Amino acid sequence: MGKLSKTDREWQRELSPEEFRITRQKGTEPAFTGKYWNSKQEGTYVCRCCGTPLFSSTTKYDSGCGWPSFFKPIAGGAIDELQDNSHGMERTEIVCHHCDAHLGHVFEDGPQPTGLRYCVNSASLELQSQEKNDEETYP
């Protein structure tokens, strides 16, 4: 599957202003405010922009940082890592491999077995839950 390429105008039609700011302009949501920062719901976290599976809820943990944190991606090749020297810091940015959406950053202070903390903006994700909603369960 090749790279998904859209203009800013196309992305703006598909995303909320906050989602666009974070995923396409490398923004960050305030800590402890995103939809998934303390979610315990099971499922697969996919890219908000293109739907690519990125993380499993089985690798999500409470890092105390205020953003959803995972210790590994769902599959090799789902996420690309880029050097980020913005704001006077040296960090590793993580982006969706398929559409280059900004997800957040990865740090080397996570739990075993990887020792990594993928710190992700909730606005970059969409949870595909295993749970059925009432409409599916009760016709």
> What would you call the structural class?
alpha+beta
Number of domains: 1
Global Rg: 15 Å
Tally the helices: what do you get? 3
Strand order of the largest sheet: 3-4-8-7-6-5
Regarding CATH, which class? Mainly Beta
Q: How do the SSEs run, as a string of H and E? A: HHEEEEEEEEEH
Indicate the mean pLDDT.
Answer: 92
- Uncertain regions: pLDDT < 50 for 5+ in a row? 133-139
Q: Main sheet, how many strands, which sense, barrel?
A: 6 strands, antiparallel
Strand content: 25-35%
CATH H level: which superfamily? Answer: Peptide methionine sulfoxide reductase
Helix content: 10-25%
Pfam family, one: SelR
EC number: 1.8.4.12
Active site: 119 (nucleophile)
Family: Belongs to the MsrB Met sulfoxide reductase family.
Structure summary:
The chain has 139 residues and is an alpha+beta fold. Helix content is 14%, strand content 29%.
Keywords:
139 residues, alpha+beta, Metal Binding Protein, Guanine Nucleotide Exchange Factor, Chain A, 14% helix, 29% strand, globular, metal-binding
SSE topology:
Blueprint: H1 8-14, H2 17-25, E1 43-47, E2 53-56, E3 60-61, E4 69-70, E5 79-84, E6 91-96, E7 102-107, E8 117-120, E9 125-129, H3 134-137
Antiparallel strand pairs: 1-2, 1-9, 3-4, 4-8, 5-6, 6-7, 7-8
